[in-house]
Amino acid sequence: MLRWLDERLYLRRFYDKFLRKAFPVHHSFFLGEITLFAFMTLVLTGIFLSINFEPSIRIIQAGTEKLPAAYASVRFIDSLPFGKVIRSIHHWAANVMIAAAFLHMLRILVTGAYKKPREINWIIGIALLGFSIFAAFTGYSLPFDAFSATATKIGYNIASSLPIIGHWFAGVFFGGEFPTEHSLPRLNTIHILWLPLLLGVLIVGHVLIMYLQKHTQPKYAEKVAPGKILGVPFWPQQALIMAVLFSLFVGLVAILASVFIANPIEVFRPPGPSTPEVKPEWYFLWIYGFLQMIPADWNFSFLGIEIGPQFLGLVVPILVVLLGLVFPFLDASRKKQRYLELPSQYPWRTGAAVGVVGFFMASTLVAYRNDLGIGVLLSWLLVVGTPAVFTVLTYGLVRLAYGPKQRVPERPLPPSGRARKSD
Amino acid sequence: MVYPMDPKTKVVKSGIVNNLALVARFRPADLSATTTEHAAGGVVAYSAVCTHLGCTVSLWDAAHEWFHCPCHHAQFDPRDDGKVMAGPAPRDLPVLPLKLVGDAVVVAGGFMTPVGPQ
Fold it and tell me: Is the Cβ pair B117, A291 closer than 8 Å?
């Protein structure tokens, strides 16, 4: 049977080429896989949610109440067996996906794995992270409770604060001035069709390029077998590890999701005239922090274009993404990178990575500035100062722990050669 | 929070969030000069749509006696033309002018500035 298939489908060639790929074994290499597992979980739970969801804000008679159809259908999902838990798993898996993707990116950053030839995959990776966050945001609006409607409306107004094209741009994505009757069908289609499709294509590209270029080898591989590729083959060893990890992942997220039920719509109620006190998800808090530390009088017009403080809140994330995109070209290497660089040998870069974390931490802290009583000036000091302090501190600590920076040791010349030169 | 009603047709456009208004009553002497012009016996009304990012300004800061938006903590002074007192809002809350007709407080005209974030 297998031979019959092989003679027709060239299974052997596929097996040799793809299923024998060597996967280096190191725990930090699993972050990318966890991101993938989260995506798979999201697709699976998303199928269940989408076949029961009605993307409409029209008011319908649901039992004794008049409710928006989307809200009523989410209440129906919650009433199905395990419905509430599956919806909650969907929510938590999205959080894990974004967190794991970010940590995966940090791992690439501190080990220099973005260098030649892997710049393209770094850029695809940033696109993946960006679109994941965008996908999470479009999911926000769908239950159409007071919380989700308010959060989406804020997103709409931020998007429409883009100079010139803002109103048009936001209208395209939100189906006019959110919430209109076109809003949910549009956001829903973007959320359940186009973004998953785009993410899927990008993930396939990301993985195929990784297959083509091979993993950057951990440093120990250079000592054990220089010039050779070290790791366990995909089939069966790595596949078994992945299967175990995936089961573990689903189990842990299910526990998390059943203990912390996400977005309890019955508590938030459908959108009404008053606004609930909304704080965005943690991966938006840093932008939320920026929105609050920009004083209102930072309005200015440039070439006749009005630029408001809302837009300035958008400028920072755009700059962060742009910096991320050009980074592999700023810190380029001419040689092809085969081995990971040890974070301890690149104290400045490691420091900068910790500084990036510090930047997000400080601007997240500023998101709570009203509760903590942090003034505008202190906010700015925190956001500018924390990354700087973290960077210098990490640099100092790495230098202290590992001594002065060691150049990657050149292969010493054979003693005979050196002796001849000194003659 | 109120929605204004058309006195002739008795239509209340409560489905439109931009129609939502905040109403408060103060001692007439506490109001600023320009606010007094649009107030009716100490009663003032403003748009409830925050000029920052369009949330409903639904909280009351009792310490300062300001309207407080729960989303990004913009604050507005109802005794002084809905002026921005704190937070990120770029413009004051639009005034809804009121007048007294007999004993009734009625709306004297449309919102004096554009409603919501622009």
Answer: no
pTM given for the model: 0.86
How far away is chain A from the Cα of B113, in angstroms, using its nearest Cα?
17
Tokens of A240: 């078994």
Instruction: Parse chain A into domains and list their residue ranges.
Output: 17-275
Alpha-carbon span B74 to B66, nearest angstrom: 10
Please indicate, yes or no, if residue B77 is contained in any of the structural domains. yes
Q: Do B72 and A291 touch (CB under 8 A)?
A: yes
CATH number at residue B39: 2.102.10.10
Count the neighbouring beta carbons within 10 Å of the beta carbon of residue A345. Answer: 16
Mention every residue, 6+ apart, whose C-beta is less than 8 A from residue A145.
A71, A74, A263, A265, A268, A269, A270, A271
Q: Are A250 and A85 in contact (CB under 8 A)?
A: no
Which pLDDT tens digit goes with each residue over B25-84? 888 888 888 888 888 888 999 999 988 888 888 888 888 889 998 888 889 999 999 999
> Is B2 part of a structural domain of the chain?
no
Cα distance between residue B25 and residue B79, in whole Å: 9
In a domain, B91, yes or no: yes
Task: Give the domain extent around B28.
Answer: 17-107
3-class SS of residue B24: strand
- H/E stretch holding A302 reads strand A300-302
A150 to chain B: which residues are within 8 Å by CB?
A: 55, 71
Q: Which of A268, A232, A254, A320 is nearest to A148 (CA)?
A: A268
- With CB atoms and an 8 Å threshold, state whether B71 touches A154: yes
Nearest to B54 among A157, A291, A370 (CB): A157
Number of domains in chain B: 1
State yes or no: cis peptide before A276, omega within 30 of 0: no
Q: Do the bridges between strand B75-77 and strand B83-86 make them parallel or antiparallel, or are there none, so unpaired?
A: antiparallel
Asked if B20's CB is within 8 angstroms of A309's CB, the reply is: no
B68 touching A, CB under 8 A? no
For A150-182, the pLDDT digits (tens) are: 889 888 988 888 888 888 999 999 998 888 889
Paired residues of A17 in beta bridges: none
Q: Does B18 touch chain A (CB under 8 A)?
A: no
Residue B51 lies in a domain: yes
Q: For B116, which DSSP code?
A: S
Taking an 8 Å cut-off on Cβ atoms, the answer to whether A296 and B74 are in contact is yes
CATH of region A17-275, choose from 1.20.810.10, 3.40.50.720, 3.40.630.30, 1.10.357.10: 1.20.810.10
Q: What is the mean pLDDT of residues A387-405?
A: 87
Q: What is the ipTM of this complex?
A: 0.75
| Chain B residue nearest residue A306, CA to CA | B118
